[in-house]
Write a structure and sequence with these properties.
The chain is about 35% helix and about 15% strand. The protein has ten helices and ten strands. Helix 5 runs parallel beside helix 6 and helix 8 runs parallel beside helix 9. Helix 9 links the parallel strand 9 and strand 10. The strands form two sheets. Strands 4-1-5-10-9-6-7-8 form an eight-stranded parallel sheet, with helices on both faces. Strands 2-3 form a two-stranded antiparallel sheet. It binds {5-[(3-aminopropyl)amino]pentyl}boronic acid and zinc ion (ZN). {5-[(3-aminopropyl)amino]pentyl}boronic acid binds next to loops.
């Protein structure tokens, strides 16, 4: 093991934040056909910002624009071009609209035996179902701008760590881990953590781990790196047999080709408590230590909290401190990227506690 990154009590944790996320504020999503108030709200990021701002150890940093190249290094450029034009074209034909979701998706089975390589529809409503994949991820005014800025937030945090910081926190909103190379999904438009991981590889990191502790499996991140030997993906999550995203996150999925063995899925049962989660984290950390990454990116979701409205785990706030400490004890620089967490009242405190656990100095024997 290389020497752990020293974090003194006075260590300031850089928080990269931008108010651009406020522009992304769709009013509702559809949950199994029922319209419900959007859970992924601007207030989420504002609660986290407010809580961290109350602790002098956290210093706020503006994101630096990184342009389109780091996004196109990970995503199909067609996805970015679609997201850029979608809202403009929707209101050009339907000016009264406040948000839009597809009503027809390119389900691969519709084209069984005919090949799925259909051209992207030029009609924006058709294209929504070509690039989109679920009804929880609306597009509205400001969605693209917010999603672009969230990428710059993650990239700026990655740069801080590449420049020698032991830890940096990217207060990303919208989140990113459900977005694969060529689709938007699960409140996510661009995969902030994956783009940061690729950026670190491009800046000279030989091995990068993405540790995903969000309640939901990060199917997008897994897909992007599934064949990659240099980017490890390790995830603890609600078992996809009962939880979104349903079609990925199974323990049997371990990577393919040169990436065989570099994907590690730890699906967990409903009601998972601090003790069982800790045991799974020990396994995850063993896998990461064996991979020996130069840097660990954490996809931080606190929707594992007992009171979260969409997760079904039973974790306490104390377990978040323990999570942060376990990751810190790996002794690698950490880029923490915000993903989910929907108990708005508890969200700021939960994230603060996680980061506090990650940044606190500990005596290691
Ligand atoms: C985003 B992230 C619940 C449906 C939820 C979308 C969940 C997206 C979660 N019945 N659908 O991973 O926190
Ligand atoms: Zn989640």
């Amino acid at each position: 093991m290389p020497a752990r990154v020293p974090l003194q009590p006075t260590t300031s944790v850089a928080v990269v934040y931008s108010p651009a996320h406020l522009r992304h504020a769709p009013a509702f999503e559809t949950n199994c056909g029922e319209p419900v108030a959007m859970l992924e709200l601007p207030r989420r990021a504002e609660e986290i910002r407010r809580t961290l701002a109350g602790d002098a150890r956290f210093g706020f940093v503006d994101p630096t624009p990184h342009g389109e190249a780091p996004i196109d290094a990970v995503h199909d450029p067609g996805l970015r071009r679609f997201l850029e034009r979608a809202w403009r074209e929707v209101i050009a034909s339907e000016p009264h609209r406040r948000q839009v979701v597809a009503d027809t998706y390119l389900n691969v089975r519709l084209r069984d035996g005919m090949g799925i390589d259909v051209p992207e529809p030029t009609n924006v409503f058709g294209a929504l179902g070509y690039w989109g994949s679920d009804t929880a991820t609306p597009i509205a005014d400001g969605t693209y701008e917010a999603a672009r800025e969230a990428v710059d937030v993650a990239l700026t945090a990655a740069d801080l760590v590449a420049g020698g910081a032991g830890i940096a926190y990217a207060l990303c909103r919208p989140p990113g881990h459900h977005a694969p190379r060529a689709a938007f999904a699960g409140y996510c438009y661009f995969n902030n953590a994956a783009i940061a991981a690729q950026h670190l590889v491009d800046r000279g990191s030989h091995r990068v781990t993405v540790l995903d502790v969000d309640y939901h499996h990060g199917n997008g991140t897994q897909q992007i790196f599934y064949e990659r030997p240099d980017v490890q993906y390790v995830s603890l999550h609600g078992d996809p047999r009962r939880a979104y995203p349903y079609f990925a996150g199974f323990a049997e999925e371990t990577g393919t080709g040169r990436g065989a063995g570099a994907t590690v899925n730890l699906p967990l049962p409903a009601g998972c408590d601090d003790e069982s989660y800790h045991a799974a984290m020990c396994r995850a950390c063993d896998e990461i230590a064996r991979f020996a990454p130069d840097v660990v990116i954490v996809s931080l979701g606190v929707d594992t909290f007992g009171n979260d409205p969409i997760g079904d785990f039973a974790l306490t706030r104390d377990s978040f401190r323990a999570q942060g400490a376990m990751v810190s004890d790996l002794g690698r620089p950490m880029v923490i990227v915000q993903e989910g967490g929907y108990d708005i009242e508890a969200l700021g405190g939960n994230v603060h506690t996680w980061l506090d656990g990650a940044a606190a100095p500990r005596n290691k024997t």
